[in-house]
Structure formats: C-alpha cells, structure tokens
Amino acid sequence: MAKYFPLGQVMGFVFSLILTGLALLVHFTDMSMKTGMIVLLVTAFLQAGLQFAIFMHAGETKDKWSIYSNIVYGFAMVIITILGTLLILLWDM
Amino acid sequence: MEFFERFMIPHPSFLIYVSMVLIVLVSVALVAVITYFKLWGYLWREWITTVDHKKIGIMYLLMALLMLFRGGVDAIMLRYQLSMPENTFLDAQHYNEVFTTHGVVMILFMAMPFITFFFNYLVPLQIGARDVAFPRLNNLSFWLFFMGAMLFNLSFVVGGSPDAGWTSYFPLADNEFSTSVGTNYYMIAIQIAGIGTLMTGINFITTIMKMRAPGMTLFKMPMFTWSALIANLIIVFAFPVLTVALAMGTMDRLFDTKFFAIGNGGMDMLWANLFWVWGHPEVYILILPAFGIFSEVISTFARRNLYGYKSMVWSMIVISVFAFTVWTHHFFTMGQGAFTNSIFSITTMAIAVPTGVKIFNWLFTLYKGKIEFTTPMLYAVHFIPLFTLGGVTGVMLAMSAADYQYHNTMFLVAHFHNVIIPGVVYAMLAGFTFYWPKMFGFMLNEKIGKATVWVMSTGFLLAFMPMYITGLDGQARRMYTYSESTGFSTLNMVSFVGAGIMAVSFIMLVWNIWYSFKNSPRNIGSDPWDARGLEWATHTPIPAYNFAITPDVTDSTSEAFWDMKKKGTQIFKGEIKKIHMPNYSGVPFIMSCGFFLLGFSLIFSMWIPAIVGLIVILAGMAHRSFEKDHGYYIPEEDVKATEKQYEKRGAK
Ligand SMILES: [Cu+2]
C-alpha cells in the first residue's frame, strides 16, 4: 500500500496550507507595509512554484526541460516589463 | 431613422461614397457569381470548414494580398496628397484616417497573415507532420483574424474610420478628442484578430515541440521552423499585453473608465507604454520568420548549407529575450529621465548585434556558394544591402539624445519602412515565389519576376530615400500638408513617383500570376528549384496527408531532402499504413460570426445584439467541450491508390 500513498501530494497540500497561513498573518498581525509586502511576495511565488511542480505536474514528463524554461522565460519577461514600466512612469519621471 | 443615424459617416467625401457603391456592387457580383456556379456548397465543404493547414495557409495568403492592395492604395493616396504643397486632395481629417488605416492594415492585416501563411503552409511540412497540433483551433484562428480584418475594413463606410494613428495614443484616442466610433473599431477589430493570433502562437509552439518527425532534434529543425518557433514564443508573451491594453482602452471608450483617459487618476502615458511593450516584440514577430525565409532561399540558391546554423539559432534565442527590453525607444521624448533613456538606448544598440550576426551568416553562405540568380534569390540579394541601411538608421534613432532631433519626423518614417519593406515584404514575396510551384504546380515566370524585383527596389529607393532628407530638414510625420516655402515639395514629388513605381511592381506581380497561370508548363515535378528542405520531399500538389510514410530523419541533417538526393539517405522507412486525420468542422466559423456580431454591436454600443453574439460564442465553446471527435482514418488502400496515381503522373 505504501507505494500507492501520494506522499508528495499530501506534503504539497500541507505545505501550501502553511504558506496560505503565513500570508494571512499579514492581515491579522500589525506588520509594517514593507515586511507585509515581502511576506506576501515570497509566499506567493513559493505557492505558485509549488502548484506548478506538484499539482500541475510540471516536472513529471520528458519535456520538463521545456516547461521549466518556458516558466523561467515568462517570469523574466514579466519582471522586466513591470520593473521597466515602474522605472519609466514612476521612479525616473 | 434615429437608429440608423449612428451608422453614417461623420466626415464624408466623394471618394468614400464611390467606395460605398463599389463595395455594394462587388459584394452583389460576388454573391451572384458564387450562386450562378453553385459554389456555396463547395466553399463550405472545402474551405470554410477546413482544418487542413495547407488550405488555411492559402486563405491567409489571399487575405494578405488583398490587404496589401488596400494598404497600398492608402499609401498612394498619402503620397499623392504630399506630392505638392498646399494640396487639397485630402483634408486633414481624411489624411488622419488614411494614415491610421494604412498603418494598421499593413502591420496587422497584411504582414501578420503573410507570416501566418508561411507558419501554416511550411511548418508541418518542414517537421514531417500531417497537420498542426490543434487543427480546429487553427481554423478558428483564421476566422477570428478574418472577422477582425473585415470589421476594421468596414469602418470607413459604416460609422467612420479610426483617425488617431496606428499607435492610437491616448488622450487623443479617448472619447473627448476622438468623437466618432472610429477608435472603437480600432480597439475591437484588433482585439478579435489578436485573439486569433494568440491561438496561432500556442498552436505552433505545441506543433513544433510535440509533432516533429522521428529523429528531428531541436538542432536539426529547418531554419524557417526555428524562426517560427521563436516568433510564436514571442507572440504568446507579447500579445496578451496588447489584449489587456485594448480591453482597457475599450472600457475607457465604452464605459467611461479612466485607465488612460485624463482625470480621475487615468494615465495616458500608460497606453504608450503598454502599446510598445507589445509593439517592439511585434517587430521581431514579423522579422524573424522573414529571416527564416531568407535563410531557406539563400542556402538553396547559393547551393550550399547555411553558414553558422547554430549561431543563427542562438542569435534568435537572444533576440527573443532582448526583444522585450527595448520598448522605451519608441517614446524617448515622453519625459522620463536620461537614466532610463540611456538604459534603453544601450539595450537597443545591443539587439543590433544578434541581427548583425545573421547578416554575416548570410554573407558567408553566399561567399564560396555557387549563386544562382532566380527571382527569390534576387529578392534576398536586394534585401541584404537595403535592410542593412535600415538597420544603420535604426542605430542612429537608438541614440536617445539624438532621437530628440529625429523623432516624429519623416526620418523615422523612412527608417521603419526601410526595415519593413526590404525585410518583411521582400521575404514574403521571395517565399511566395519560391513556394508557389509547391502550392499550385507551376512556376511563376522568372523574367517578369526578376523585372518585378528591380522595379520594386527602384520604386522603394525613390520613395523612401528622400524622406530621410526631408525628415532631417524638419518635415514632421503625419502632417497633412506644407507650404511652398518649406522647400519639401521636390523631394516629396520624387517620393510620390517612387510610390507609383512600387504600385507598378505590385501590378506586375499580379500580372505574373495570371501570365504564368496561362503559360507555364505543368510537368515540373515536385522539386523544380533543386531545393534542400523536408518540405520538398513530398509530391506536388501535396496530398491531404502530406507524407504517405512519416519521414524519419535520424540519419539526416537539417536538410533532409538534400541528403536524400545527394547521399541517398533513407527518410521514408517502413510500409504505408492507414492514416489518422482530423475532421472538418463548421463550428469555428459560426463562433467567429458570433465574434463579428459581438464586436460590431460593441462598437456602436448596441447591447442586445452584443449579448446574442456572446451567446453564440459561448454556445460554440460548450458544443466543443461536449463533442466527441476522434477524427477519421484514410484506409491503407486509399493511400496506396493515391500514391500510385502520383507515380503514374511521373511526379518524383
Ligand atoms: Cu522598437
């Protein structure tokens, strides 16, 4: 039976609950804006990565190389676009 | 009567009335001809519902040529208006409408379908597949593009054309300054066509990643397929930005939100920012497949393999990242600081490096090649110096400090036509001539073809070189007229003559098709150019299933057909078996009619028909998710019989 037990999935579920709980702390405790944002961003990206790897099965097939590189590429493009936009319209205007 | 008033043209002219009459007459004639020859059933069964990538490709090609004509007529009108000082052929409003339409049509409804034609027609053949990964989605992509294009073209006879430029900058594009429904057309028609393009992107990435012939590793893919993969990757990451920006712009115009409008926290510059976050990658979406076509043409007619295959691929991969890091160079003068401008100046100059790598690779391919000057090759040979000139003026524009001098002048207009025409248009026409015999079984006349290239390049130089000069002298872009004393008139007249010569070359192209259809021999076999890629390894005309036996390129290079011809490498191993093919479907067409209805109704803020359109779309999606469609098999005997027929005809 042991080998049919989806240990990874269960652990993933528990871990994602913990991450959600951590994020909720921002609402229920009295953090500064800065710490709050950091906690939210870090838990959000960990959560996204967890969902990709465990529940969306990103790493389970032969083409995991192309799936991961696609995610990294998309992530990089989004960061560039957001930082660039902030730079143009706010920080250096 | 009040209901119909909204469809009137706010700023009519004699020419628009003539076009209205012509459109009605042509439509009636078309319907009459189709009915008289009883072609409705044939059109529905063989074309409208088709999922065959070759037929969908040919429909894209037809649209691209039609739109090239439409955009070309606009261009001639613009050049004629500017050919003399104080010309009254077009007034300011009409001039605005014409240049807006010219830009949108040429980029989104001419260049985009032209490259999509090549994706569709070539990619499955080059990777040895029977169709794309999602054949029915492909059909939907085409019809969405078609409906978007038709909606946009409707604007000048129903309700008024968009007039805020192809970039449609806010606040000009907002209700306060653009009062007609023209800009609604812009927002919604491009949205519909853009959704189609996004689907194409997903479809072709999947096709290339998942459906390559056995033995075809990524680094054994033909160069055009590589360029298609990178271009589609950029599509998938760039087009959502346009989708979102257009949706926000639509809401500003229809529901009075304030994303880009002035006041209540709206930020007009955010539109320019988002537009170019999409807009610059769009340039590479167009130019990379063009480079792919040139690579195929140059290696075929230099009679040797492409120099530096790996560096070609890597330069494209680098471009796919850099393409997203340069967008600010389109608005250096918007008010951001020198620090930001310097960053984007440097990234812009850096992206010229991988492009330069490609130019040198082609030159090295030509060097020591046995060059044969066919029509496609002539396009390629004209492309290299002309495009390099455009690239150099691009680097000039990339210097942000100097850009304050050039920006919004004819210098810029000359620059981007200088890269897009020799880069994209020449590539499309080279590929069009090169693959014509594969599509239709006869060659285009070489004499007329080569003459066309020379006439086109002459016209091009006459039309655009003067703009560099008048631009530096201060002729502003989008200015509908100028006074005698500016001294722009002679050079603008030269420009108009050049545009006329380019129009002649387009007529020559059409004449060539007709002449060759009448006169060219039909017994040309399946490999008239002595070509190299896998796409030439099948019969002409290409059977519905592309390859009777799936090619196996384990022992070949990226030029599998050349290896087969010269080294005798086997690529068709095994026996003919039954072939699995996708079914045709009419649902995508009906869905796209729903999109048309939805779009048209939104443009005029008619909510009830809009909801009807939306219901049609949702019903189509629901139908698809409950439908069981496993395709069908072409039985082994049928495939064998078809193959026998080809043998009898002596093909191959
Ligand atoms: Cu750009």
UniProtKB/TrEMBL annotation, chain A:
Main localization (coarse): membrane
Location of this chain's protein in the cell: Cell membrane
EC class: oxidoreductase
Enzyme Commission identifier(s): 1.10.3.-
Keywords attached to this entry: Cell membrane, Membrane, Oxidoreductase, Transmembrane, Transmembrane helix
Taxonomy, superkingdom: Bacteria
GO MF, one example: cytochrome bo3 ubiquinol oxidase activity
UniProt-listed InterPro entries: Cyt_c_oxidase_su4_prok, Cytochrome_c_oxidase_bac_sub4, QoxD
Catalytically driven reaction(s): 2 a quinol + O2 = 2 a quinone + 2 H2O
Annotated Gene Ontology cellular component terms: cytochrome o ubiquinol oxidase complex; plasma membrane
Pfam family, one: COX4_pro
GO biological process: aerobic electron transport chain; ATP synthesis coupled electron transport; electron transport coupled proton transport
Function: Catalyzes quinol oxidation with the concomitant reduction of oxygen to water.
Recorded family membership: Belongs to the cytochrome c oxidase bacterial subunit 4 family.
Protein name: Quinol oxidase subunit 4
Organism: Lysinibacillus odysseyi 34hs-1 = NBRC 100172
Automatic annotation (TrEMBL), chain B:
Keyword vocabulary terms for this entry: Cell membrane, Copper, Electron transport, Heme, Hydrogen ion transport, Ion transport, Iron, Membrane, Metal-binding, Oxidoreductase, Respiratory chain, Transmembrane, Transmembrane helix, Transport
Cofactor note: Binds a copper B center. Heme A3.
Keyword Transport recorded: yes
Signal peptide: none
Catalysed reactions, semicolon-separated: 2 a quinol + O2 = 2 a quinone + 2 H2O
Enzyme kind, highest EC tier: oxidoreductase
GO molecular function list: copper ion binding; cytochrome-c oxidase activity; heme binding; oxidoreductase activity, acting on diphenols and related substances as donors, oxygen as acceptor
Compartments it resides in: Cell membrane
UniProt superkingdom: Bacteria
InterPro entries hit by this protein: Cyt_c_oxase-like_su1_dom, Cyt_c_oxase-like_su1_sf, Cyt_C_Oxase_1, Cyt_c_Oxase_su1_BS, QoxB
Pathway(s) the chain acts in: Energy metabolism; oxidative phosphorylation
UniProt cofactor(s): Cu cation; ferriheme a
Domain Cytochrome oxidase subunit I profile intervals: 38-554
Family as reported in the entry's similarity comment: Belongs to the heme-copper respiratory oxidase family.
Matches recorded under NCBIfam families: QoxB
Protein name: Quinol oxidase subunit 1
Taxonomic source organism: Lysinibacillus odysseyi 34hs-1 = NBRC 100172
